Description:
Layout: E1 3-14, E2 17-28, E3 32-36, H1 43-51, E4 58-63, E5 70-73, H2 81-87, H3 92-104, H4 115-119, H5 123-137, E6 141-145, H6 153-165, E7 169-173, H7 177-183, E8 186-191, E9 194-199, H8 202-248, H9 256-286, E10 310-321, E11 324-335, E12 339-343, H10 350-357, E13 365-370, E14 376-379, H11 392-396, H12 401-413, H13 430-443, E15 448-452, H14 460-472, E16 476-480, H15 484-490, E17 493-498, E18 501-505, H16 509-516, E19 520-521, E20 524-525, H17 528-546, H18 554-574
Parallel strand pairs: 3-7, 3-8, 5-6, 6-7, 12-16, 12-17, 14-15, 15-16
Antiparallel strand pairs: 1-2, 1-4, 8-9, 10-11, 10-13, 17-18, 19-20
Helix pairs in contact: 3-5, 8-9, 17-18
Amino acid sequence: MGLLLKCLNIKKEFGDRVILKDVSFHIEKGERVAIVGNNGAGKTTMVNIITGALDYDGGSLLWHEDNVKIGYLHQSSYYSQDEFENMIQGGKDEIKEFFHTSKELGIDKIDEWNEVRLENLSGGEKTKLAIARIWAEKPALLILDEPTNHMDYEGIQWLVGELEKYNGTIILISHDRYFMDKTVERIIEIEDGRAQCYKGNYSFYRDEKRRRYESQLHQYETQENYKDKIQRDIKQLKQWSEKAHRESKKKGLVENKKKEYFRAKAKKKDNQVKSKLKRLEKIDLEGIKKPKDEQKITFNFVRGEKSSNRIFEAKEIRKGFGDKVLFENSSFYIRKGEKIGLFGKNGCGKTTLIKAILKELYVDKGDLYLSPSAKVAYLSQDVMNLDGDKTVLQTFGIENYERRGMLQTLLTNMGFSKSMIHKKVSTLSLGERTRVKVAYMIMMENNVLILDEPTNHLDLHSREMLEKTLEEYEGTIILVSHDRYLLERLCDKILIFEDKAIKRCEYSFKEYMDMKEGNVENGEEKSKEEQLMILENRIAAVLSELSLLSPGVEAYEKLDEEFKTLIKRKREFSG
């Protein structure tokens, strides 16, 4: 393939915080590489250095090809409305390709959109438009930062297929295990400011990392046992040396030979002690270090004051943008303590409904009621709306000594070191900013949580802990997510967005999907369109569940077989 890029000993600091200490790796032309690591490890920083958007403080970045055209897909929260307006403009060939790709991704008639429509793009629509624009530019190097965030099944499948056909080089940042297994052939992990490379896909990387961890831990434990033996030997040698010193000084010991014998013996033992101490020092300096355990994150929501039984009610509501109607003639309610999921395709109006509940926009018709006793905390998809000039601690504006102590304990449990809480928000990764917003919600002691794609930007450890915490939360939850695993685990009721309407379903999400997956419901045969939707929903769900499992385990293998069967059925059904 030939070498495209070499990074040698790259270093990057933000103030006194060292993000990249000594990062070295290379990229071959035509390679598919994923850069992984915990939130804040420096993944996005590294790709910004590669694109030239950031300067580095040390090391070398060597390109082996001149003027490489780069297409960089940022996370959707990066893009402004102006940038989306610029996307629908450009040269004739590029704009034609852009409209074609957008249509393939399920977004049509973009040229007819006005400013109001562009102001109210969903997270999935933002990602799809940004991808379509990059594809139209035909870059030689693709850098994709969390491309599956907010994406529905159709978008992910299109992306997997296009990456298979793509002839250039790909650098991917993602927490979607299944997606990486399908698209990459080498993993670069950034941890503690350094890079480790693993040949193979994500599943191989996890297995190999675990093997390396266990091997290093075994070597470390063997070394520590050896150090303990040296310490015991030193203790014994010191006892012998002290005894020899005492013997050489006894008054009754008149023979010089005996005195010299004990002195020599004491000196020999002292030299042996020095030798063993030097050996210990060398092990401490150059020996095998204890492998680092994976970061543990703890969330702990506290429910605030009790609310009335009826939290929210909608009567005959309608909302549209221009000629596009998102929903109309829709009536439903949400009771206290319910965990209710909002389910539908990209652009169907889920985020719009949330904004209406929060009074950030108004419906065109109908009435919305939010209980005055509802104390609402909202986690939006946008994590860039925090004040970047404030430190993490200043963001909360807490002066009370006791509550400030509670906040510092909370932040520590969520993976923030003592030094990090005094850093400016602008230096944090998107995942770290998401954790700051979650911490803010926790400190509000609310009784209603509205969560719009809460697991986006979070690494896998953080996701699992957040899911567990939300499951235990006693208040009301309104959840938007494309993650079926989260929806099935959490939601006891759902609002379905389909056919330009919002309908309340009196089943849990899992029960709803179980009923949908048959061809008949309540004795009535389904239409072809409904059956196809059922297939697509189940495919999306299986993909979501697969992304949370590792190949080799029984659950993964069963789901993978189901995925293949579903794809085959969809082809037969569509054909």
